[in-house]
Structure to design on (360 residues):
């Protein structure tokens, strides 16, 4: 059974990856990797490249963006910093002056073999930014996927994982690995 | 006369630096340096470190932040990307839901000798985010310094440079160099 390293300290993400990439042994490692500014594809690829170089093993990393349509995709990859600084209520307030409340939740998985070129897999779930409802970490309470009456935070983990941006990226990654 | 390299492609910035750091020969070089996410001090120090390593000469770089108080300092170092994507009007609209329209314009200069630890110098000008007035590049038309009735863009370059965030950082840098 081939081995992959998932660079994450998040147990829930690790469990989700294991449940999808069933043909692989997935180990997790916590690495403090520098994160660049810029295009989300380049950012995640560079993280994967650094991780594979550092560990000498095939590595994958993930990066989440929350992209407000009215803000042309911002805060995007900077969502974690925005969330830390202005919170969910602040994020909702950013859109007060804009009519368009739609957003994309994006998971970008970067994957790299040591000394090879990194590649990436993108999963997108579209939705609307709403006032916080539900009780889960992060921005889950303010993101309501299109076609659903619940926010991510009001769904069970199982419901959410069925339609989540991360799930979609993991499925693409799985298909890639199966073709190898 | 000692030599310093200013990593910039901006002629106006170069002229301003030369006008203040008169005891040095200042050359400019355009380098495409990766920019990290995170704390503005660390970001500019890393850029200076990379530049000095690459060129093998004492180098300085500058980085500008526009920090909205209501957004706990954001967009901060990401201001260029915000400006490119949502423009001046979009930046003003970000604050529609917030009463506090105050902001800090920050210039951070990073300086590094090859293979030494980088240091930095910060200049801050406080002001208010207003509807665009005046006709100059960037976010100058939406930033009105405290105590003035003009935006940066309505001032002449000479007026602006007297009170600008970059000027303040350059003066600190000059004082440091004089002590060496």
């Amino acid at each position: 059974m081939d081995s992959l390293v998932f660079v994450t300290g998040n147990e829930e993400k690790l469990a989700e990856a294991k449940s999808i990439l069933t043909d692989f042994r997935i180990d997790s490692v916590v690495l403090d990797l520098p994160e660049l500014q810029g295009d989300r594809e380049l950012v995640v690829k560079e993280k994967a490249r650094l991780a594979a170089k550092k560990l000498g093993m095939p590595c994958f990393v993930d990066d989440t963006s929350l992209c407000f349509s009215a803000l042309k995709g911002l805060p995007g990859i900077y969502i974690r910093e925005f969330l830390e600084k202005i919170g969910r209520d602040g994020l909702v307030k950013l859109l007060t002056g804009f009519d368009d409340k739609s957003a994309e939740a994006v998971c970008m998985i970067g994957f790299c073999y040591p000394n090879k070129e990194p590649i990436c897999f993108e999963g997108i779930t579209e939705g609307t930014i709403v006032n916080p409802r539900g009780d889960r970490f992060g921005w889950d309470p303010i993101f309501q996927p299109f076609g659903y009456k619940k926010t991510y935070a009001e769904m069970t983990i199982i419901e959410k994982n069925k339609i989540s941006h991360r799930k979609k990226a993991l499925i693409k990654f799985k298909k890639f690995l199966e073709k190898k």
Observations:
- The mean pLDDT of chain A is 95.
- The first helix of chain A runs from residue 11 to 20.
- Chain A has five helices and seven strands.
